[in-house]
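quick one before i forget lol
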Amino acid sequence: MNMQKLFSVLLMLGCAASVVAQSKMVIKGTVKGDLQGYHKIYVLEDGKKKDSVEIQDGQFSISLPWVKGAAPVLRAAYETKLKPMPPALQLLTEGPGTVYLNVADAARGLRSAKIRGSRAAVTFQEFEAGRHLVSTEMTNALKERFPDKSSADSARGAALQELVQTRMIPYICNFIEAHADDYVGTFILGRYQSILPPADLERIYHKLTPKQKRSDQGKEVAARLQGIKNETPGFEVANFVLNTPEDQSVAFHSFRGKYILIDFWASWCGPCKASFPRMKELYQKYRSDKFEVLSISIDHDKNAWLNELKKQQLPWPQVLDTKKISVNNFAVTAVPTAYLVSPEGKIIMKQIGFGEAGDGEIEKKLKELFGI
């Protein structure tokens, strides 16, 4: 190999090494105070421990793959010792690099860390601190108003929803609007898009810069806004194709000529599974060449879906949403959510929750349509 080729190879290797190095998110921290013998920092993913590192001489360092749109969650073992489920520290960075954390007092927890090295991480910490404050104020207000009521109490639940609408959602919207030209703002908008009122979601989306609209989160929000328009009563459902448990393709247009009850559910959804006995009764009552049920699971874990289907033994067609139909075509924000669709393929009505007692609006409409 001549020197010119050798130089070219070394240059390419150096570039490759640089790319690998740049794809990492390095977290370097210092922690002062009594750790009570608990020295580990855990990295959590979906609430489970994915990685860990020891605090040695008040310092720790951990390297993680940088994934766009991901925000690693850190929890300290000493905090867990003091409190069963302490608030964790979530770090959002705009790109690979090193983030520095300085915890001046271990007793105050990781969330008290002074952050530098990433503007996004600092801004997101500011958002989380404000959100935690609003959440605490809401909790205290509920305790004061309903001192003897559990979280299952209907009046308390209604008051909570009112507080979410009057306190939490305005806080989220105001913060996003203040950072509409920033990665952090778009990330937060993507995270909370399912709880924001459609008018607020659309208003804030149009304030994003063209660059942020082209981001993954921006595209997700655009898809949800389109889904919101698509789910309007009278709107014709666009054809989609999803697979059955046997990996057979099912096209929605194949159901034309029948009233279709589309049921969005998930294996982890308790209310979904609680609705199935009543749905089986309805299916037995109305099943014909004029009526069909189609269940669409939003599970990300195919095996979890398949295992739950074995338990439930549902007699109508089942498909798995691998194409985000729940968002792009219907803007589903919670499960169970059901849609009644006309034989012409147009949405008649939407219902969140199924109404296991037989008092749901869709069931009333079926009685009206079929006279039984």
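fyi The first strand starts at residue 24 and ends at 31.
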